[in-house]
Every structure is written in structure tokens, then in C-alpha cells.
Amino acid sequence: MHVVDLVFALAFWSLGFLFLFRISLCGSRIGNRGPRPSVSIIIPARNEENSLPVLLASLRGQDLNDTEIAVVVDESDDRTREAAEAKGVRTILAGPRPEGWFGKPWACYQGAMAAKGDILLFLDADTRLEENGLRRIVDTCIETDGVVSIQPYHRTKRLYEELSSFFNIVGMAGMGTFTLFGGRVRPVGLFGPCVAIRKDTYFEIGGHAAVRRQVVEDLALGAKLKKQKHAVHCFGGKGTISFRMYPNGLRDLIDGWSKGFATGAAKTYLPILIAVVLWIGGGISATRYAVEAISSAKPLPALAWGASYFGYCAQVYWMLFRIGTFKVYTALLYPISLLFFILVFLYSAFLIFIRRRVRWKGATLSLKDKGPAT
Description:
Layout: H1 3-19, E1 39-45, H2 52-60, E2 67-73, H3 80-86, E3 90-93, H4 103-114, E4 119-123, E5 127-129, H5 133-144, E6 147-151, E7 153-154, H6 165-174, E8 194-198, H7 199-204, H8 217-227, E9 232-236, E10 241-243, H9 250-258, H10 261-266, H11 270-296, H12 299-320, H13 328-332, H14 334-355, E11 357-360, E12 363-366
Parallel strand pairs: 1-2, 1-4, 2-3, 6-9, 7-10
Antiparallel strand pairs: 4-8, 5-10, 6-8, 11-12
Helix pairs in contact: 1-11, 1-12, 11-12
């Protein structure tokens, strides 16, 4: 039995409790009934005719007054605008993108320029608010007196969507704010699907105009905020906001995660990045040696490495049930999702650092020249 390997696997397994120790939620701050600033909800939407009605329906059920909602239609070739107008929501046509802008920053900036509220709440079109979710977000923004960013709770429906599991784990861990050290570690950026920020703070840092050519604009915007000493607070979305990512098939899922995941990894704090890499390596070793030990029919190694493997299964599920509706079998068969994660991560690195082009929602974005690729 490879005793040294078993000890290392156990040590690497324990790192998972370090980098994803506690996922803070913003729901505990509900109950502030005092006067609130006005809120503008800005929804950038490109080809979101199917997702948008779900979000707008969830907004209709919220109990916060003095809130405006604007859907910024970004070069959509479907019925996104009609879907918004059918719900009685204001629409803003983003218009032709200027040279040097990517689509989402441009749409967000157009929405911010037209907003009237004191607090700007940027929501991706595939999100949906849970009951009292809007009040939780706004209360948290007020009470923390900073920028609030939330990673939505990931709801899965189809089998292929379970392959997003390790992207969720690593994405949450890589933000740096859910470690054993809690708030003593500042987050590396923002979670793009949900950001609440005071309007004066937003324009003070230049807003999305300052990150106009960033594929992962959320991380870049967070870096701007940190540079100017603004407080950033990141939370998990369970009980507040959720989403269903990439419902249009496996190709959509691959394009979505490969669009900027390698860039995000490059911005992660080095100690956390090392811990995540070692943890993944331990998961691979546990799988490999468990298979070898069981195949050799030697009881003691099979028992030891089998326990190691199921230890990883239990830990992965402990991580997943806090961040989404992932199934138990996804944790039990974690090597499948882990292999998929590694392959897509390598593909993302190839697209971003070598090919210098990524594809998303029918558009190819060039990372090397000034204008959008065609």
C-alpha cells in the first residue's frame, strides 16, 4: 500500500475545508424596515427571450417599493425586447457597440447612464430572485455600506448540467472570501450575475467603461473597487437569488465556462490557487489508487483507498449542496465532472492565451485587436 501517497491524499483532501469553509448568506440581514435609497435594477440581455420572463416574474413578487427595472437589449436577434415589454418593463436599446467595447459592459453602462436610483442592481437575465430576495440584497448593501456581490444558487435540471459542479466549486473558492479566514481575506473581484452598488461609487470608479474590454468584467470591476479602497462583500445566493446556467445544451455550457475561466484562475490569490490545485490532485490520486487497490483484490489497500475516495465524495457533496441543486450521484461519480472541468479549463486557456478569441451567444470576441471579431 502506498502509505505516503495515502497521507498526501488525506492532507490534500483537508484543504477543501480551508478554501470553502463557510459560504456567507445575505438573508440574515432581512428585517431592516427603515427608509431605503431608491433602487434601479439593470438587466443586460442578449438573446434572452426564454430566460427573461422568469426573472421578471420573480421581480414582480418582491416587496420593495421605489424600484425601477430596465432591460438593456444588447444586439439581440430573438424576441428579448418583446418579452420585456410584454411584462410592462422599460427597455433600453444598447445601440451599436463602439470600438473597443464588449457587449455586456456596454449594455450595463447604458443601463447605468439611464438609471435614476441611488443603488444600482445589475442582474443577469438568467437569474431569478427568491421570496424577499430583493429586500435581502438591498438591506445587505445598506448595512455593509459597500458593494454587494452574490453568486446565485445554481439550479440544475438536465443531466449535462451536473458537469458544472467543479466550475461552481472552484469559482466560489477562487473568490477568496469563503475561506477559513473569513472576512480577513478580501475577495479578488465580483460575482457578475448579481452586483449591488451605490450609483456614486459606480461612476467614481468609471463604471463598466473602465472595464469595457474585459471578458470577465466582474473580476476587473472588483479590482477597480479594491484599488480605490471600496469595501466589497461576496455572498452565496441560497435563499436569495438563483439561476439555471446554460440551459441550451452542452455546447452552450462549454462556451460559457471556457469564455473566461482561465483568466479568472490567473487572478486568484496564489495560496488559494495552490490549495485548489493540490486538492484536485488529491482527488485524482484517490480515484487512481482506489481503482488499483480494488483491482488487486488486497483487502487493506482497497479499504484504505476506498475510504479515501468516499471521503472525497462526501466532501464534494458537502460543497455542492450549499451552492446548488446538484445530485448525490454527481458527488459519488465526481471523477467524471472533474475530468470535464480539467478539459474545459485547458480549452479555456488555449482560447484566451493562445488563440486569443472566445465565443459567446453567437458572437466571437477577439482579445487581441481593438474591435469585435466577426
